[in-house]
Amino acid sequence: MAAVRGQPLQALGARELNARSRITNQQITPLKSTRKLESEVEVVKAEKVVPDQPKDKAKKKKEKLSALCKTPPSLIRTRTGKDYKRGLFLGEGGFARCFQIRDDSGEVYAAKTVAKASIKSDKTKTKLLSEIKIHKSMSHSNIVQFVDCFEDDVNVYILLEICPNQSLMDLLKKRKVLTEPEVRYFMTQVIGGIRYMHTRRVIHRDLKLGNIFFDPEMNLKIGDFGLAAVLHADKDRKYTICGTPNYIAPEVLTGKTTGHSYEVDIWSIGVMLYALLVGKPPFQSKDVSLIYERIKTNDFHFPADKPISNEAKILIQDILSTNPLKRPTLDEILEYDFFKGPFPEKITVETLVSVPDFSHLDRHQSQINFMNARRNAGLIQSSQKNPVEILRSDLESEKPKTILPQSLSPGNTKSKYKEVTDMAVRPRKIEESSSKLGKARRLDDDRKTYRTSIDAIPRFSDTVLQKECEGTLTGILAAERQARSRVPNRYSTILKTPTLISKWVDYSNKHGFSYQLSSEDIGVLFNDGNTLLRVNHSNSFWYIMNDLTDGWVAQEYKMGFIPHELSRQVEIADFFAKYMKTNLCKVSNDDDSLIEETEEIFLRRYTRSDLYVMFELSNGSIQFNFRDHHKMCVSQAGSVITYISPDRTSETCLLSNVLRDGSFPSVAYDIGLDEKLALIKEALKGKVNA
């Protein structure tokens, strides 16, 4: 915490210090000045641009919002007895003002002040509390340090470390452009802060020059978490259209269909790189609608009068890829040749007003400086942290007239939030086992006692699933290599459609996950990990137990001799069977005689995300039902892929041939093959590394 001790409160000259710039809940309006390097208007759930508002109307709206932000009293008293003295006004946003305040010990902070009168709905309150929760959970050398939060009868106060040397935006306004050595140094620190956030599943979503501040030692600090979001899982997506127009990634603008994730922060790095080296953002326009059009079409160029290296241009072009999957990762960015140039040991305050001289830097010293900068930014050692979890209790106040719950305020900074922990115990290493992989061991004695799984103990099945995901991923990568060779892969036998999950009902909040296979078999994967499988055209059923040492063990029972312990499970399975038969459609209209398997198949695990549902079947097939109603099933150790269209027609091909041709033979339209395969590989990697 870089607070200033024992000094009088004084003006810092920073109009936007540690505060959001022009926050608004209205739809965006075009910019009024071509001289501004950043749009001062942020988009919050806006889908289209509205015409310019009359100046007098806009002014009236601004005055109304400002009037809600009451100036704090000269002595701010808290409920804990710790008081603060208000200092000078630092700046304001759409609904918040920022002031210097000093505690009794003489330490000075920046206080972001939000009027309670502006918090008129549960949605607004939840948004504010979420910002506090996320920011408070951050602890990194390149992120503005959260100090505390409290409230009085009029305002909510968010105390932050004070950054007295303004922001990157202020520096660029004074200097017009920066040198490449400075930009390398600054971007290394910024990437360190972003990488830390991403390891905690936090997307900032409003990274821009005006939200990155200099501490007293001229180190950069990322601030303003007003638009930040937490992903429940790395594969999840967000769909709110938000951000600052000049910095919005193209996938955010189409958020209702594609969603966005960590890559939006990487896009912002590219925009900042360009702005620092050129003097303005790459898609700058005084018309917001034109900014969006340029972003969507990737319409930017490097001005001929700006001395930008080819290494910088290559990096910026790669980061500003319209397809988020083609952007380099944070670690890959630092491997570009751009970062192999002159690299300073530190940046001094003289940089704020004059161009520094780096002519003395040789290659060897620059490499040492770069390594030290990466280490200081947490980029050398692993910075994996438990992800942030937004708890319901954090968004609910205990007292009717208060905003902040006890878990957030006051003075609770030493008590860290409950964080998400990986409850799945890593399976122990085992030797490769033959017949147990992918199949349930069948017990001959149908009188054997029914038993449930013990989730707290590592199970053999965890390792089986991990190995099969690894094998499937390996097969997909091999198919990609085969496709790149451009040599068709000939298959000697007829490809048959694997058994698929045809219908399903997720009732895991009470019983479990019920499904119907394309073979017409009905199964229920109960919440205890065990499965009941009703075989089509049979008077028997299988009860498959998730076993500690054998993976899965199965017992067959006749319908006329149901053990008392299983009567409830059979009743539930019958209920779901009738429900699915009456209400749900089959996944495919194809002839079931082409199904590959001749023995019973059951669902061993399923995973739900915002973009797909993933099914892992006992024959090794892995099926993905995507959000857009397209479906794919990877089978035969990743070498074969089945595509099921929204109108329930299916086609099974060798994956290498599909990749080589760019599509399935019978599909004449874009199904987003590259994006879907990228999601499949990402999901498999997550299972392998779990």
UniProtKB/TrEMBL annotation:
Domain named Protein kinase: residues: 84-339
Signal peptide start and end residues: none
Positions with a binding annotation for ATP: K116
EC number(s) stated in the UniProt entry for this protein: 2.7.11.21
Gene3D superfamilies reported in the protein's UniProt record: Phosphorylase Kinase, domain 1, POLO box domain, Transferase(Phosphotransferase) domain 1
GO MF entry, a single one: ATP binding
Span of domain POLO box: 500-582, 602-689
Catalytic reaction equation(s): L-threonyl-[protein] + ATP = O-phospho-L-threonyl-[protein] + ADP + H(+)
One GO process term, biological-process aspect: mitotic spindle organization
CDD domains: POLO_box_1, POLO_box_2, STKc_PLK
Keywords: ATP-binding, Kinase, Nucleotide-binding, Repeat, Serine/threonine-protein kinase, Transferase
GO cellular component: cytoplasm; kinetochore; nucleus; spindle pole; spindle pole body
Assigned protein family: Belongs to the protein kinase superfamily. Ser/Thr protein kinase family. CDC5/Polo subfamily.
Name used for this protein in its record: Serine/threonine-protein kinase
Organism: Wickerhamomyces ciferrii (strain ATCC 14091 / BCRC 22168 / CBS 111 / JCM 3599 / NBRC 0793 / NRRL Y-1031 F-60-10) (Yeast)
